[in-house]
C-alpha cells in the first residue's frame, strides 16, 4: 500500500476512529504521535487511521501517553520546535523516541512495531532547550539500553560506584542504588560526556550524582570521592566485604568491635567465623586476584569432563561476566543442565565428590534444590533466593605455565605454590527453567535488577531465575530460549555482550 501524501477528499478518514471502524488495540504500550508539520493534516489523518487499523494506539495530542514521535520532512530541531510549546504536558523522566517516518511505514508493513535502528532516529542538536526529546534517546530502564563492555565514561562511573559502595557501607541502600543507576546510564553512552548540559537530558540522574559529575568535569576529579576513599570505615568495610562469606552486616559489626585488618581477624580469639568465612580469609589473596578467561575455561572443562563421566549429554555453560565478554572476573559462574528433564537431579554431589577426591576442591557448600517445595501450591515461601541445587565453592586450580596471566603472581611467600584458589558458583537447573536461569546468571547485577523492575512496573510480571509469572493472566510463561523471555516482556533482545549495565 502506498503511503504517498494524498489530497484531502470527501473520502479521507478523520483523525479519530469512526463508529463503524473495527479496531483492536494490539500494542497498548506504544503511543504514537504524528507531527503534522510538513506532513499535512490529511496525510496525518490517513496515517492515523492506517495505524489504528493495524492495532496501534495513535494520540491526537502530544502528552505523557506518547512513547514515539513520528515526523516526516522535518529535521530533529524542527520537530523539537513544534513540541516545545507542549513540553510541559509531559511528566518528567518519561521521554518519547523521536523517529523518522520510515520507522512508521516499516511497522505498518510488518503489522507490528519493528526494531528501532539508528537510521530511524532523527538527529537532534545537542544544545536545544527541549531536553525531553534528546533524553528520549536513552531509555529509562537499564534493560532497554545496550551497554557494551567498553565504557567511555569510566572517570565518572568509577567515582559514582565508589559513592555507591560508601552509601551501602552506611546502610543507605536507596542512595547506593541511585548512584548505581546514574553510573549505569553513563556506561551505556557511546561517547564521553563533555558538558553538564548533556547530563540534563539523561534519565536517572539525581542532584548528588549530577554534582559529582560536574565536579569531575570542572576539576578532573571529585574531592568528595577522594575524601570517601581515605576514610577508615570505607577502607575497612571494603577489605572485610571482599572476604568470601562476609556481608555488609558482619563487616559492620567487626568494624564496630574495633577490628581493622585481616590480621586482626586472623588473630582474634573470640571471633566466631563460619566455615565459609574461614575459607574466605584463608584464601583471601588468591580470591581477590582476578580470574582470567583461560582459567574460567579450564574450570568449566574440568567440571564438564567429570559431569560427562556420570551423565553423558550434560550441558555446561559459562555464565556471569565471562558470558558478557569480560576478560576477567572475580569468580566463575557455571550452569549445569541436561536435555532430559530430571536427569540432572543429584548430579552435582557426584561431581563435587569426584573433584574433591582428586584434591581439586578447597571448600564447598552444597545445597539441594528446593523448587518443588517453593513452588508447590501450599508453599509459604516468600524468598527471593534461587531454589536451584547449587554449590558456592572454592577450587584448587593447578597453575600451568601455558595459561596466560596466571604468571603475573605476587611476591608473597606463597608465590612459589603451583596452584591458585578460585571461587566457583555451580548451579544446576532443569532444562525447563534453563532459559530463565541463564538470563538470571548472566548479569550484570544491575541489568538483572532493571529487568525485574521493568517486568514488575511496566508489565505486571514477576521475573526470577526460574520463571516469568504474569500476574494479570495468573500464569507462568514457559520459555525455550532467552529470546522468548525478551519477547514476553516486549523488550528488544539484548545479546549478553550488551548487558553490561
Ligand atoms: P564478576 O564475577 O566478573 O566480577 O562479575 P559477574 O559475573 O557479573 O558477577 P557475579 O557476582 O558473579 O554475578 C553473576 C550473576 O549471577 C549476577 O547477575 C547475579 C547472579 N547471581 C549471583 N548470586 C545469585 C543468586 O544467589 N541467585 C541468582 N538468581 N543470581 C545470582 O551472583
Ligand atoms: Ca562472576
Ligand atoms: Ca558469581
UniProtKB/TrEMBL annotation:
Its cofactor is Mg(2+). Its EC number is 2.7.7.7. Keywords: DNA recombination, Magnesium, Metal-binding, Nucleotidyltransferase, Nucleus, Phosphoprotein, Transferase. Its main location: nucleus. Mg(2+) binds at residues 331, 333, 425. It is found in: Nucleus. GO terms for cellular component: nucleus. Pfam families: BRCT, DNA_pol_B_palm, DNA_pol_B_thumb, DNA_pol_lambd_f, HHH_8. The gene is POLM. It comes from Geotrypetes seraphini (Gaboon caecilian). It catalyses: DNA(n) + a 2'-deoxyribonucleoside 5'-triphosphate = DNA(n+1) + diphosphate. Gap-filling polymerase involved in repair of DNA double-strand breaks by non-homologous end joining (NHEJ). Participates in immunoglobulin (Ig) light chain gene rearrangement in V(D)J recombination. It is an enzyme of class 2 (transferase). Residues 27-121 form the BRCT domain. InterPro entries: BRCT_dom, BRCT_dom_sf, DNA-dir_DNA_pol_X, DNA/RNApol_mu, DNA_pol-X_BS, DNA_pol_B_palm_palm, DNA_pol_lambd_fingers_domain, DNA_pol_lamdba_lyase_dom_sf. This is DNA-directed DNA/RNA polymerase mu. One of its GO terms (molecular function) is DNA-directed DNA polymerase activity. GO terms for biological process: DNA recombination; double-strand break repair via nonhomologous end joining. Belongs to the DNA polymerase type-X family.
Amino acid at each position: 500500500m502506498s503511503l504517498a501524501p494524498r489530497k484531502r477528499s470527501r473520502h479521507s478518514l478523520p483523525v479519530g476512529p469512526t463508529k463503524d471502524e473495527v479496531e483492536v488495540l494490539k500494542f497498548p504500550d506504544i503511543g504514537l504521535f504524528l507531527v503534522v508539520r510538513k506532513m499535512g493534516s490529511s496525510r496525518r489523518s490517513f496515517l492515523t487511521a492506517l495505524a489504528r487499523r493495524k492495532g496501534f494506539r495513535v494520540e491526537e495530542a502530544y502528552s505523557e501517553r506518547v512513547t514515539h514521535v513520528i515526523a516526516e520532512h522535518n529535521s530533529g530541531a524542527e520537530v523539537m520546535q513544534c513540541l516545545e510549546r507542549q513540553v510541559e504536558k509531559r511528566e518528567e523522566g518519561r521521554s518519547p523516541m523521536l523517529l523518522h517516518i520510515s520507522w512508521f511505514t516499516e511497522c505498518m508493513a510488518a503489522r507490528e512495531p519493528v526494531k528501532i535502528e539508528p537510521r530511524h532516529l532523527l538527529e537532534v542538536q545537542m544544545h536545544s532547550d527541549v531536553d525531553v526529546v534528546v533524553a528520549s534517546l536513552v531509555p529509562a530502564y537499564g534493560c532497554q539500553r545496550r551497554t557494551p563492555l567498553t565504557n567511555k565514561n569510566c572517570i565518572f562511573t568509577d567515582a559514582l560506584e565508589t559513592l555507591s559502595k560508601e552509601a551501602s557501607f552506611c546502610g543507605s541502600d536507596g542512595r547506593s542504588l541511585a548512584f548505581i543507576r546514574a553510573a549505569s546510564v553513563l556506561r551505556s553512552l557511546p561517547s564521553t560526556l563533555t558538558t553538564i548540559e548533556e547530563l540534563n537530558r539523561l534519565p536517572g540522574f539525581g542532584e548528588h550524582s549530577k554534582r559529582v559529575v560536574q565536579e569531575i568535569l570542572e576539576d578532573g576529579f571529585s574531592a568528595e570521592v577522594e575524601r570517601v576513599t581515605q576514610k577508615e570505615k570505607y577502607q575497612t568495610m571494603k577489605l572485610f566485604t571482599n572476604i568470601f562469606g562476609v556481608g555488609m552486616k558482619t563487616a559492620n559489626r567487626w568494624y564496630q568491635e574495633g577490628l581493622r585488618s585481616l590480621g586482626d581477624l586472623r588473630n582474634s580469639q573470640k571471633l566466631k567465623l563460619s566455615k565459609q568465612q574461614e575459607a574466605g580469609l584463608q584464601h583471601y589473596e588468591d580470591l581477590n586476584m582476578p580470574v582470567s578467561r583461560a582459567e574460567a575455561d579450564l574450570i568449566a572443562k574440568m567440571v564438564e569432563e567429570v559431569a560427562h563421566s556420570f551423565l553423558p549429554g550434560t550441558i555446561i555453560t559459562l555464565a556471569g561476566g565471562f558470558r558478557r565478554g569480560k576478560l576477567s572476573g572475580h569468580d566463575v559462574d557455571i550452569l549445569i543442565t541436561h536435555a532430559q528433564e530430571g536427569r540432572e537431579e543429584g548430579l552435582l554431589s557426584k561431581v563435587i565428590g569426584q573433584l574433591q577426591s582428586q584434591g581439586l576442591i578447597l571448600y564447598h557448600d552444597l545445597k539441594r534444590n528446593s523448587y518443588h517445595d517453593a513452588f508447590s501450591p501450599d508453599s509459604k515461601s516468600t524468598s527471593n533466593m534461587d531454589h536451584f541445587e547449587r554449590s558456592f565453592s572454592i577450587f584448587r586450580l593447578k597453575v600451568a605455565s601455558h595459561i596466560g596471566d596466571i604468571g603475573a603472581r605476587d611476591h608473597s611467600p606463597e608465590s612459589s605454590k603451583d596452584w591458585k584458589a578460585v571461587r566457583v558458583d555451580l548451579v544446576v537447573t532443569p532444562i525447563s527453567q534453563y532459559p530463565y536461569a541463564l538470563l538470571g546468571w548472566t548479569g550484570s547485577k544491575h541489568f538483572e535488577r532493571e529487568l525485574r523492575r521493568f517486568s514488575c512496573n511496566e508489565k505486571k510480571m514477576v521475573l526470577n531465575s526460574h520463571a516469568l509469572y504474569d500476574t494479570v493472566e495468573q500464569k507462568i510463561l514457559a520459555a525455550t530460549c532467552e529470546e522468548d523471555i525478551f519477547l514476553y516482556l516486549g523488550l528488544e533482545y539484548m545479546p549478553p555482550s550488551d548487558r553490561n549495565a
